[in-house]
Amino acid sequence: MERHYYVYMMANRPYGTLYVGVTNDLIRRVWEHKNAFVNGFTERHDLKSLVWYEVHSSSYEAIRREKLIKKWHRDWKVNHVQAMNPAWEDLYAAIAA
After folding, report:
1. Distance CA 49, CA 92 (A)
2. Cα of 78 vs its chain's centroid, Å
3. 83 exposed, middle or buried (CB, 10 Å; 0-12, 13-18, 19+)?
4. What pLDDT digit, counting tens, does each position of 64-91 carry?
5. What are the residues facing 22 on neighbouring strands?
6. How crowded is residue 58: how many other Cβ atoms within 10 Å of its Cβ?
7. Domains of the chain
């Protein structure tokens, strides 16, 4: 059974505050953010919309990518979201279906 690892971005509104994370269960992790089970930055800033994600086949690659994206300038992150999700829609419903 092949495992997948995800790098993802949460936002509180279009062009709003962004959070970059990594997980091996994207549906569960986003659900935790949406229901405020994750204390800290995402809860304080009301980050409940999944606006971008990508899939990796190894935890090493996903963590490496997360660390890289976290170092990016905000404009680069916004452009990255725009490329995949120009309307800044919450992608949770699509992945949870």
Report:
1. 7
2. 12
3. exposed
4. 999 999 999 999 999 999 999 999 999 9
5. 7
6. 11
7. 5-96 (3.40.1440)
